[in-house]
TrEMBL record:
It comes from the Bacteria. The keyword Thylakoid does not apply. Keywords: Kinase, Phosphoprotein, Phosphotransferase system, Sugar transport, Transferase, Transport. InterPro entries: PTS_EIIB-like_sf, PTS_EIIB_2/3, PTS_EIIB_3, PTS_sugar-specific_EIIB. Residues 3-105 form the PTS EIIB type-3 domain. The keyword Kinase applies. GO terms for molecular function: kinase activity; protein-N(PI)-phosphohistidine-sugar phosphotransferase activity. This is PTS sugar transporter subunit IIB. The gene is ptcB.
């Protein structure tokens, strides 16, 4: 899979930074080299309008925003889903990256 832009969204943009690091490590170890980053929900709105995003994953703490994000990206062909609580809690970067890639296929 070619390099993709994977955006994680959380309440303040900080709680997912450790997960982003785990995902980046797995991405490099497996020669994927995706661009993976985290933003707060308010930052995500403007980023989507100005930049290329291939998939959006919401942290469990903002799962209530799923329908809103799906509406925001309607027509843009950007899949949106919620990171499973078990993977988020265990900081399982491999599983979360695999979820992102599955959504982008």
């Amino acid at each position: 899979m070619e390099n993709k832009n994977i955006m994680l969204v959380c309440a303040a943009g900080m709680s997912t930074s450790m997960l982003v690091g785990k995902m980046q490590n797995f991405s490099k170890e497996t020669a994927r080299h995706h661009q993976i980053f985290a933003l707060s929900s308010s930052e995500a709105d403007s980023y989507i309008k100005e930049s290329t995003v291939d998939v959006i994953l919401l942290g469990p703490q903002v799962r209530f925003m799923l329908d809103d994000f799906k509406k925001k990206v309607a027509g843009l062909d950007i899949p949106v889903d919620v990171i499973p609580m078990s993977d988020y809690g265990m900081m399982n970067g491999e599983n979360v990256l695999m979820l992102a890639e599955k959504l982008m296929k």
